[in-house]
Amino acid sequence: MQTFKVLSVALLSFLALSVRAEKRLLSSWEFSHDKKSWTKVTVPHDWAISGEFDPFYDRQVVRIIQDGEKEATKKEGRTGALPWVGKGYYRTVVEIPKDAKFASLVFDGVMAEPQVFCDGKKVGEWKYGYGSFEVELLAEAGSHLIELELLNRPQSSRWYPGSGIYREVEFITGGEIGIENWGVIIHTPTKDELVVKTECRGKPFKTVHTILDGMKEIGKFEGERFKGDFELWSPENPKLYTLKTEVFDKDLKLCDTSINRFGVRTIKYSKDGFFLNGKKRKFKGVCLHHDLGALGAAFDRDAFRRQVAIMKEMGADSIRTSHNIPSKGQLEVCDEMGMMVMAEAFDSWAEPKCKNGYSLFFNEWWERDIANMVRKCRNHPSVVMWSIGNEIPEQIDSVKGPNLSMAMQRKIRSLDPDPERKCTQGCDRMPAAIESGVNRVMEIPGVTYRLPYYKAMYDDTPAKIVLGAETASTISSRGEYFFPVIETNAWLRHGHSSSYDTEWCWWSNLPDDDFAMQDDNNWVIGQFVWTGFDYLGEPTPHPWPAHSSYFGIVDLAGIPKDRYYLYRSQWRKDSDTIHLLPHWTWPERIGKVVPVYCYTNGESGELFVNGKSQGIRKKDNSSRLDRYRLRWNDVVYEPGTIRVVVYDKKGAVIGEKSISTALDPDRIEIRKERFGNLLFAEISIVDSFGNLCPRAANKIKFRAGKDLVFKGVANGNPLCLENMTKPIMSAFNGKLTAIFEGSGTEIFVEMLK
Ligand code: GAL
């Protein structure tokens, strides 16, 4: 965080030096649904998140082909049950300085189909809500009214897309000579070499690059190449440098300055696997949708920093921005905190998955969207892989499938300075995607689920590597357990899925299956789990009132589910994990079996119930669930305390963990965590001994103290219909998280009976 502050200060002082060109965030806008009544808003803005959940919104009667449905059924909550469909309007005023010769607006993402007007005249449009684009304005000095008209069509998404100008907008003005937006192109072909190309408007007389390490200048050069002694960027050491690029006219007057952060790292994909800085590694990745829970789709760097921090603590080193182009802010945070990124372009091409989705525009727009994705993302050291699509229906078409796949890879190649940053797509139609030739033409063959086909893909592809582009889709609700514990993909519709982590979908599997695939096959280069966090929409397999997902390793409130520790036990080699489940408060199960699981990196463990040993369990290959978990399946419940002692391979104790039966709710405990300007308060309802009350559902009321405003609250229950932007909500299984903005620290929390 410190580095970031230093960099921002550096950045501001350089901008102040520039004579002409200026780039600033345009965050004050007005919003309207009808062009009659207007409200002041701050962009990024999501107009739907403050709405009430209602099954009416985007209610669909559809057959989801990729889920194997045989007939159309009513789908409610599929896209989050919030009012994102419809038209929206934004307006603001920009001031173009008197001597400007150039002015433009750069939109990082507008949901959706924005048309841009300047003083009433249309100056640009875009279709894809996840696409970034620049609109040039006539550079006439003075005030200009900028207006946007947006359209979100029903049935245009498979999840909650959000609505509005949900990402940043930059306003650029400059003289005749200037650096193009995304016009500084950085590549580090080797660990001690920097190659920079600069695309300009007009003809600069001279271009000078300065390299800074923090505030310290470590190099200056004209031309394209610089040799230096760099510290390398990696998830473990996300070292960043700053490149200041200045262009001068023939009188040596400074015309424009562009500041770009970069990291030096090498990547390589070969038959031997994936290498970062010469070291082989497998992706320990998660897929993330773009919404931020109670904050909706409005991008917020600090909320995303929290997501990344939670994922890193679990041991994840990479994120797939499923299924769309990441925001600039996401990339900056991944650079800064050390997360590798698979930047994904599309969820569909011309063949639709949703009636009104991107397929309406694909043929005419894909080249522009891919081009801007590459231009925007290419300087970020975090981006190590592209994806041209997710489960694209054309993968089974032996003409369109390979042809379009090759065309897109060629397009990316033509704009990406790094020839080693390769391209994948997630194929799900197996073996059709092998038969169509799509698997063979991909630089990185990628598959979603379908473990039995990994070997066939490997045999088929010249690349001789396979990526688990999307894995697991195990479903669970935090703190919900069902008996008897069964392994099933039969979709038990309790409204919840079991936190014993034994439920999956017919197309998917359990984390244990993916661990085994990764561990047993050298040519599998890693996995991206569906998903790191729960997201709004796609409540598969549960019907209304379910309206958010069950796939997350972490719930919508940012609270880890049990599964978090299963991944942590495999992914963190530097820190021990010992996690016991379920909770131990089962008044209705006295004398009945309550299986106990332990997720740990340890090799064996002994479980005690009120001091009585339940035996030692050791990880082994005897069944699917015993290789990566310790399980005591026959424990008979009695109130009290369960305790596990865990041993490593040599039999030495690595630690222990216990859980006790909770009494009635007595008070709340607050765990506050600050990320930049956001304060997250995780509330736990506990008994008089401090034990979590694992079923408590008390309503909790919030009030922000000095220098704070309340932003939102979530409890992680996909069935909860309480508004996420009002400062009162019921806890779910004893917990919830409230979010505040500002520099203050004091919050007032009240537990109602
Ligand atoms: C995949 C799809 C994801 C999500 C997931 C749920 O097939 O790519 O977007 O729908 O299934 O399991």
Written description of the protein model:
The two termini are 40 Å apart. The chain is built from ten helices and 44 strands. The chain is of the alpha+beta class. Mean pLDDT is 95; it is low at 1-19. Strands 23-24-25-26-27-28-29-30 form an eight-stranded parallel β-barrel, surrounded by five helices. A six-stranded antiparallel β-sheet has the order 3-2-6-11-8-9, with no helix packed on it.
Quick summary:
The chain is of the alpha+beta class. Helix content is 14%, strand content 35%. The protein is globular.
Write the layout of secondary structure elements.
Elements lengths: L1 H16 L4 E4 L2 E5 L6 E4 L17 E3 L10 E3 L10 E11 L5 E6 L7 E4 L2 E5 L7 E5 L4 E11 L16 E6 L3 E10 L5 E9 L4 E8 L2 E6 L3 E3 L13 E8 L5 E9 L4 E4 L2 E4 L2 E2 L2 E6 L12 H14 L3 E4 L6 H10 L2 E5 L17 H16 L5 E8 L9 H16 L6 E6 L4 H4 L2 H4 L2 E5 L5 H7 L5 E7 L38 H10 L3 E7 L32 H9 L6 E4 L14 E5 L3 E6 L2 E7 L11 E3 L8 E7 L5 E8 L6 E9 L2 E9 L12 E6 L4 E6 L13 E3 L4 E7 L5 E5 L2
Parallel strand pairs: 23-24, 23-30, 24-25, 25-26, 26-27, 27-28, 28-29, 29-30
Antiparallel strand pairs: 1-12, 2-3, 2-6, 4-5, 6-11, 7-10, 7-12, 8-9, 8-11, 13-14, 14-17, 15-16, 15-18, 18-19, 20-21, 21-22, 31-32, 32-35, 33-34, 33-36, 36-37, 38-39, 39-43, 40-42, 40-44, 41-43
Helix pairs in contact: 2-3, 4-5
The site of beta-D-galactopyranose has 14 residues, from loops.
